[in-house]
Fold:
Amino acid sequence: MIKLIQSNWREVIAVIVTIALLIIGLISLGNANIAASSAASTAVSVGVSLLGGICHFGVALALAWFALAVTFPEANRFILSIRFDNWWSHLNDDGKARISLITVAVLVLVAALCLASA
Structure:
């Protein structure tokens, strides 16, 4: 677990900041001064909705990652092994671009669904 946090410290910081901002936004919604101002209330509500969508997106990605480990462990072992790095390094630029674009398209769809449900 420590090695995972050390190699992904930027993501850990992003999660902590997102959750802190979400909590601050939720607390701000209960503030009488913000509730009295329709513009401030709307801005805080939109911000909280966006942060909630980001949290949904992160949970969806985490669940997909853990679901891969349970439902298709061979693929999970391949992705986490050096074989994936070797395969990716031997892939031509056209193949890398296609895989990257498909991945981005899927992530955009998941993010849009998460933000829409927030």
